[in-house]
Amino acid sequence: MDDIDRKIIEKLQENSRASYKEIARDVKISDVAVHKRIKKLQKEVIRRFTVAVDQRSLGKGTTAILMVKCDVGAAPVIAERLSAMPDITEVYSTLGEYDIVAKIRTKDMETLKDIVEKQLRMIKGLHEIRTSIAFGSYKEEQSLVM
């Protein structure tokens, strides 16, 4: 991946609906070259094109980070279960004190409480959950790191 590819990715992250012609004008190559590069990047780097959504406007005003300890060998299965839950938006396996860290977005604190108590605590092999409520966000994006 060269500097032109990085610039193309930056432009797509700013506006994934930008035309090849718009991107070509900004990165100073032909639209045909942009098209070819994007096709190549889709095979090698770009996982998918998506839309950034304002979660609060969709009624998901509460965000929490879940730190999960699992019984020995249970983490992969639990991570898959968490990944399948619609309110959980990110799941990471981690080294250190906790086996899994997950981000959850819910309507409100009551909904979060219900999910933690009635769904998560019932998962076999889940040993402990620590919940930290986010009361503000400084950055939420998946952008190209240069």
Description of the structure:
The chain folds into two domains: 3-44, Orthogonal Bundle (Arc Repressor Mutant, subunit A), CATH 1.10.10; 56-134, 2-Layer Sandwich (Alpha-Beta Plaits). It contains five helices and four strands. The N and C termini lie close together (11 Å). By secondary structure, the chain is α+β, with helices and mostly antiparallel strands. Strands 2-3-1-4 form a four-stranded antiparallel sheet. The model has no long low-confidence stretch (mean pLDDT 92). The radius of gyration is 20 Å and the shape is elongated.
Number of strands: 4
Unreliable stretches covering 5 or more consecutive residues: none
Cα-atom radius of gyration: 20 Å
Principal-axes shape call: elongated
What count of domains describes the coordinates?
2
Mind describing the biggest β-sheet?
4 strands, antiparallel
Number of helices: 5
Regarding CATH, which class of the largest domain? Answer: Alpha Beta
